[in-house]
Amino acid sequence: MRETSMSLLPKTGLAGLKQNWRSDLLSGFLVFLIALPLCLGISMASGFPPSAGIITAIIGGVLVSRINGSYVTINGPAAGLIVVVLGAVQELGQGDSMAGYRYTLAAIVVASALQILLGVVKAGRLSAFFPASVVHGMLAAIGIIIMAKQLHVLFGTAPEKGSSLLSTIAQIPHSILNPNYEIALIGLTGLAILIIWSMIKNPSLKMIPAPLIVVIVGIGLAKYFDLDHEHMYLFLPDATFLSHHEDNVGPKFLVAISDNFMSSFYFPDFSKLPTLEFWEAVLSISLVGTLETLLSTMAVDKLDPYKRHANLDKDLTAIGIGNFLAGLIGGLPLIAEIVRSSANVSNGAKTQWANFFHGMFLLIFVVAFPKVIHSIPLAALAALLVFTGYRLSSPKTFHHILKMGKEQLFMFVVTIIGVLATDLLIGVGIGILTKFILHLLRGVNLNNLFKIHFEIEKKDANTYEVNIARSAIFSNFMPLKSGLGDIEKGKSIIFKLHNTYFIDLTVLEFLEDFKHNYEESGGKCQFIGLDKHKNFSGHSLFLPKEAKV
Fold this sequence. Notes:
The chain is α/β, with parallel strands linked by helices. It contains 21 helices and nine strands. Among the domains are: 13-179 and 246-357, no CATH class; 447-547, 2-Layer Sandwich (Transcription Regulator spoIIAA), CATH 3.30.750.24. The protein has helices at residues 13-45, 50-67, 82-93, 97-120, 132-154, 165-170, 172-177, 181-199, 203-206, 210-224, 276-303, 312-329, 338-346, 353-368, 370-374, 378-392, 395-404, 406-421, 424-441, 478-485, 505-520, and strands at 74-76, 231-235, 245-249, 335-337, 453-460, 463-472, 492-496, 500-503, 524-528. Strands 5, 6, 7, 8 and 9 form a five-stranded mixed β-sheet that branches.
C-alpha cells in the first residue's frame, strides 16, 4: 500500500462527494455489476424472493453508507448468511415457504435490535472473543453447505424433499450423473468462466466483473434454449449408441421477479415470537451477521490505501438500523461484505459515496429493467454461489489454518464437523469449548479463563509499561485491548511478559496488529520476555524467531 499523508486523506460527507464523485461513481457502477447477480442468487438460495436481496443492497448503499463508521466497505446480503436464513425459513415455516419468509423477517427485525444495542454499548470489540480458527471453521462449513445445495440447482435437478444436509450431499453424484443437460450446460459454463477469470492477471480484463460475464453468457444460452417457454427436449436425439434423454425446461429455470418493484415489499409476521425456534433464528442471524460485519470491516481497513480505521461500534449500529428497515419491508439481513468491498478498493473508491452509488444503480436497474432480471437463468446464479462456497472452504483455507499450527487446524475441523452435524450455533459453541479445553490442558487456571491480570503504567512523558501476568487468551484479553486503546499516540510502549506463562494465538495476532498500527501513527512498541515462552502453535508473527509463543 502506498504511503499517504494525513493532509491527502479524502474528505467525507458532501465535501467528499464534491472531491471524489468521479472515482466513487465509477467504482459504485462496477460494484453494482458484481452485486446484482449475487444479490439475486443469495436471496433465492436463502429461501427469499429474488427481489429481497436487491432491497437489502439498496438499503445498505443508500441508507447505511450515510450513517456507518467505515470508509470503503460495501454493505449488502452475503453468502455467509444463506445457511442461517434458509434454516430459519424452513424451521419457522414448516413447509410453508411464504409463512417462513415472513416469520424470518420478524426474526431479522429483532436481531437488528440486538445489533443496534451492541453498537450503542460499544461491543464491537466482542468479535475478539471468537477465535480465528473457530470463525474460519464456521465460514468453511457454511461454504460446504452452500455448495451442497447449489450444485443441484446448477445441474437443473433437486434433492428429495425433506432431505437432511447429509442426504443432500449424498445425492450430489446422482444429480451429476442425471442432469438436465441444457441447464447443466448453462451452470457449468458459468462455473468455467469464474475459474478461468480467477486465473487471469491482466488488470484491464480484471476490470470486467466475472459475475457480469456469467450472467450475460447465461442469458444468451437461456435464449438459445428458449427457456422462456415450457417445452420438452431430447438430449442427443440422433446418437444411436446412446439412450435418448428427455427433459423439461421452461420459465421455472429463470429468475421469477415482478415487473412492479413496489409489489416486492412484504411485511414481517411476529406471531412466532414466543417460540424457541424463533429465538434460535434471532441469535443465529445476529451472531453471524455481527461477526461477519466486524471481521469484514477490519479486513477492508487493511486494504484501504489511506490506512483509515473504521469505527466498529458505529458501523455495527448502522448495520443494525439497516437490518431493521430491511426486515420491515421484506429484505435479507445485510453485512459489510468483503468480496464487493475488495472490488470497491481495487476500482479506486475513496469514500462511502461509492457504496451509495452502488445502491442507487441497483434501485434504478430493478425499477427500469425487471425483464432483464427475469431472463437470468438460475443455473448461472448457482454457479456464482458454488464458486463462492468453494472459496469459503477451499484447500487453501485448510492450508492457511495449518500454518497457524496443528491445534488451530484441529479446532477448525472440529467446528466444521460440529456445524455440519448439528447447526451453526451449536457448532460454533463446540469450537469455542474445544479451545477452552485445550487451554486448560496447557495449564491455564479456571479463574484465569475470563480474567486477565495486567497493569499499564506511565513511566515518563513518552514511555508506558504494560505488565501482563499469568495467561492472556481470547476470552480474557478484551480489557487489555480497551486499556491499550486509551494510550496516547506517538509514545513508546514496553510490553513486559516475564510473568506471563501462556499467550494464545488470538492475543499474539492482536499484539501484532496493535504494534503495526501504533507504529504507523508514529509510536514505538517493544516486547520483553517472549524469548522465555515455548512455541505451541508453530506460527510465527512479527516476533523474533526465538520468541514465539
